[in-house]
Amino acid sequence: MPNNQSWGIDTLALRKGQHRTAEREHAEPIFTTSSYIFESAAHAAECFANETGEHNIYSRFTNPTVRCFEERLAALEGGERAIATSSGMAAILSVCMAFLQQGDEIVCSRSVFGSTIGLFSRMMNRFGVTTHFVELQDLTAWEAACNDKTRLLFVETPSNPLSEIADLEALAHLAKSKGLRLVVDNCFCTPALQLPLQLGADIVVHSATKYLDGQGRMIGGAVVGSDKDMAEVFGVVRTAGPCMSPFNAWVFLKGLETLRLRMDAHSASALDLARWLEEQPQVKKVHYAGLTSHPQHELAKKQMRGFGGVLSFEMQGGKEAAWRVIDATQMLSITGNLGDAKTTITHPATTTHAKLSPEARAEVGITDGLIRISVGLEDVKDIKADLAVGISN
């Protein structure tokens, strides 16, 4: 396929990365093979000596279907290279293993996914890596937490589940002034709505499980950045093996084909639903960056093309009221996943963030009355009707 960097996002999502075989297939094939045949002993030696991942050797780290997904996602994010991993958490772990060693430190937003907090505070800590958690919006706190041991700044924006927005250009400036890498979890927006690398970030991580797939079918992750940085991440995946399977990569490729269309639809329905929720007297507060009432609405408009499909709202009456709303739904799926074509609903305090202490949840604003919704592609009137049953009781 032609390597045309002037292609628009929809064309890249459909065409980038495909290298047709002699069979002249139209759709991308799935290469379900563990290894590859070499022309000679000398050819095998040449391929094994190459550390870039350009030659097919063994599907743990070189597979044509996975490579197609990597090339396509890198193009969509505006990065030089992407490395596919077995999950979103494997992507974050691979970044840590590539750039951290005993004695190093991370500065991370408090407002990140619960498993990210667990990885940094419990597991990385066991290997001598310290994490300082700071308020997402407090740039002074970010700078104060940095020292000569700091190596990474990590942020998720919009945050899970309160849709807080980080000023990526300001954080990128801070990182560059101190010689650090800024890592951005772009799961909620995807490259269809936000391009952190263009705003100065060094590395983007994804849970491909979410919107990149879009239908809740597969587990996967990815890391995107410069050729130099991704060579380090590739070394981790090659050696430690947190790799993506060819079949999963093929499913993600199909998801990327409709990414921009889906994200626009998710965003439109989420904004409609958020405005409706604000009108309900039983709802104490709605968290969605697309609302003019959101304290960072203008920043979100500046660095995002749309506001995404995830919102949360707080019920009057705490946990009892929140559970009543969730249990009254008949159409919505009660599950901790998000980014699905089907609308999902969950209670963060007892699911996605349940492993945090009550004090830690309070620090990041996750109340007992909070409900998170990942708005799907159903008719939004039907989503409202399903929620109205529990909200009005």
From TrEMBL:
Its EC number is 2.5.1.-. SUPFAM superfamilies: PLP-dependent transferases. Pathway: Amino-acid biosynthesis; L-methionine biosynthesis via de novo pathway; L-homocysteine from O-succinyl-L-homoserine: step 1/1. Its cofactor is pyridoxal 5'-phosphate. Pfam families: Cys_Met_Meta_PP. InterPro entries: Cys/Met-Metab_PyrdxlP-dep_enz, Cys_met_metab_PP, O-succ-hSer_sulfhydrylase, PyrdxlP-dep_Trfase, PyrdxlP-dep_Trfase_major, PyrdxlP-dep_Trfase_small. PROSITE patterns: CYS_MET_METAB_PP. It catalyses: O-succinyl-L-homoserine + hydrogen sulfide = L-homocysteine + succinate. Keywords: Amino-acid biosynthesis, Methionine biosynthesis, Pyridoxal phosphate, Transferase. The modification N6-(pyridoxal phosphate)lysine is found at K210. The keyword Amino-acid biosynthesis applies. Homotetramer. Belongs to the trans-sulfuration enzymes family. MetZ subfamily. NCBIfam families: O_suc_HS_sulf, PRK08133.1. Catalyzes the formation of L-homocysteine from O-succinyl-L-homoserine (OSHS) and hydrogen sulfide. This is O-succinylhomoserine sulfhydrylase. It comes from Marinospirillum insulare. The gene is metZ.
